[in-house]
Amino acid sequence: MTQAVNLGFPRIGARRDLKKAVEGYWKGTLDAGQLLQTAANLRADHWRLQADAGLDCVPTGDFSFYDQVLDTTVMLGAVPERFEANEEIVSLDTYFAMARGTKDAPAMEMTKWFDTNYHYIVPEFTRNQEFHLASNKPLDEFREAKAQGHTARPVLLGPVTWLSLGKTKEAGFDPLDHLDAILPIYAQVLKALASAGAEWVQIDEPILALDLSSAQKDALQRAYARLSQAEVNLMLTPYFDRLGDNLDLALSLPVAGLHLDLVRGPSDLDAVVAAAPNKVISLGVINGRNVWRADLSSVLDWIEGPVTKLGRDRVVIAPSCSLLHTPIDLVYETKLDDELKSWLAFAKQKIEEVAVLSTALTKGRDAVSEALAASDAACKARKASPRIHNAAVHERLTNVTAKDEARATPFKDRRKLQQKKLKLPVLPTTTIGSFPQTADVRKARASFRRGDISEADYNQFLRDQTRDAIRFQEEIGVDVLVHGEFERNDMVEYFGEQLDGFAFTRNGWVQSYGSRCVKPPLIYGDVSRPEPMTVAWSQYAQSLTERPVKGMLTGPVTILQWSFVRDDQPRRDTCRQIALAIRDEVVDLEAAGIGVIQIDEPALREGLPLRTSDHAAYLDWAVTAFRLSASGIADETQIHTHMCYSEFNDIMPSIAAMDADVISIETSRSDMELLSVFADFEYPNEIGPGIWDIHSPRVPGQPEMEALLRKAVDAVGPEKLWVNPDCGLKTRGWEEVRASLTHLVNAARTLRADIKVDA
């Protein structure tokens, strides 16, 4: 029998129930008992949904209040000293303090989970760190599912991946040096799960999809030599790319099963069949990171032969990775047109696809003939649909030349012209774009969409919000202003709603970090811009002030990365289509009198392939797409870009090749560590390292900001520096924003005086 399994399920609930409960707990409107009950209800609902959809066992331990890396950090008792926990079992409040910070203790660093838009809290390591079992979450949730009648497979983040994702806070040692200290805790957890009745435990080691160092390879061998002694079967689970040259290592590890991400690494299947390992092989053939319906007949044509060779009782069918990255259920999408909806599969539908494949392999195709026929019809209809292709878009792309993909004048010459026009002081201050999306803003938007208020009344409300934001920035002395983006629901969705080739869900939420959820657009066809998208609001804001106001755009790579992208043409081609649409907007902003335009690309690093051999091809088309979007303007117009929560060490030449006049980055959580990369590289253009961590509710004092800014001045000198927060202020409250931005502006003024440059 070929079983149907799942690697992980979305946690947030169909209507973002977990988000609301967690934020209620943070605000004090829910107590711990209510939060825990909401979580238990969600887990029960999700296990039942998965079992009803046809799974042979459900995953447990994949649920999290924040993220699975932080859960592992807590399980191992790796709480940084500044949180003063001293707890045998880490409390809920300490858990959230690690993620969000406190008045006295800055939050732990956050960064992207491999090449996804999901974020995790980065483990912190010191040389003499001690570990202990500080959370019983894996065992508790397994018992919970078992008590509800489910066959369950617990999920753990693997020890080598956890150590590899962390950062040292002391020089001179490797986090992998802690492997021997944490393996006994993993062994203790596995023993407890085995005693509770677990037959299999899934251990996620996505690090196997990377180019491994010899130390990591050795650590994997030592780790699984120890953990394989547990009286439970281990399913080693890498994902997000091919195993490639790590396949022999993965097959050699003494585990009972091995998962293959065959969406990202289809070539691994033939290699595994040829190796004929004495293991259960998990075939990840349903895409866990996109929303398009699978061509089930084609998948069966591909895997039936290999399954026969491996043995049906030694194969399980699964998604390529956890379904954390997809919305929960299409049933809630009552507003999507029937044609487009027929092309889609959310988490529940993907589980059903897994079940159809496992049934076909066990009982034959006739047993699922109806499901296969529906899949065939949907795939055929999608390929033939006239709404996908736009001949004018393709013709325009063929006419793009190298001249269209570069600014006409080198930066050092553009800089003089821009300074003459803008007349900015040294250490100019700005923000990243958005201002608080208050309850009033969200209420007004919802009222307008329901038809409760007129378009004229809604626009007047937005004008009032914009005017107040401009006045506030002028009052405290910000140098380059923003209009606040009150009209925007999301930095990608807002643009997608105005571009051809995009569609939108009503409840297609996915988790980005913590309680932050996003609703990625669906790019189903060729992309173009029918009319200007942001010009009117930027022009209105500029009319309110003599100071420059930035036009705010989202870049082509980020729109691509943060959408569910069509899978019937190369991503490069879709990205270039988006770039041309953004280029049109840039040109129109300049024509409307906007002299500073920011094209955000926080996802450029996120999209970097996991294997070094694939970097060059991606960076070539990604950087070219940005330049295509930004290069249709005069030298005097200043182009900014923004990137956050990314590691830049290995792509600095490409960052420089983007040729943005100014780049702003997140640096406060890393205590300016990221800026050192730009300093060492001698980054040629201007840079704004963030000095306020906006993902934490803390209000940093002016001295704290001054200290960070002094580090930045020491690193790259004052002439190149801008002063700004880490990211946009959408998620913060006005009380925090007023205080923190005032501190930021005053910190810049203090340093201007200290370095004796006339402001």
State the low-pLDDT regions, or none: none
**Total tally of structural domains:** 2
How many H/I helical runs? 27
**Approximate helicity band:** 40-55%
CATH architecture verdict of the largest domain:
Alpha-Beta Barrel
As for the CATH topology of the largest domain, it is TIM Barrel
Largest sheet: 8 strands, parallel
Cofactor: Zn(2+)
Family: Belongs to the vitamin-B12 independent methionine synthase family.
GO molecular function: 5-methyltetrahydropteroyltriglutamate-homocysteine S-methyltransferase activity; zinc ion binding
InterPro entries: Cbl-indep_Met_Synth_N (IPR013215), Cobalamin-indep_Met_synthase (IPR006276), Met_Synth_C/arc (IPR002629), UROD/MetE-like_sf (IPR038071)
Describe, in plain words, how this protein is organized in 3D.
It is an enzyme of class 2 (transferase). The active site is at residue 695. The protein is an alpha/beta fold and 759 residues long. It has 2 domains: 3-384, TIM Barrel (Alpha-Beta Barrel); 409-754, TIM Barrel, CATH 3.20.20. Helices cover 43% and strands 12% of the residues. It has 27 helices and 22 strands. The strands form 6 sheets. Strands 1-12-11-10-9-8-6-2 form an 8-stranded parallel beta sheet. Strand 9, helix 9 and strand 10 (257-261) form a beta-alpha-beta unit. Helix 22 (571-591) runs parallel beside helix 23 (615-630). The longest helix is centred in the middle third of the chain and has 22 residues, at 455-476. It is globular. The termini are far apart.
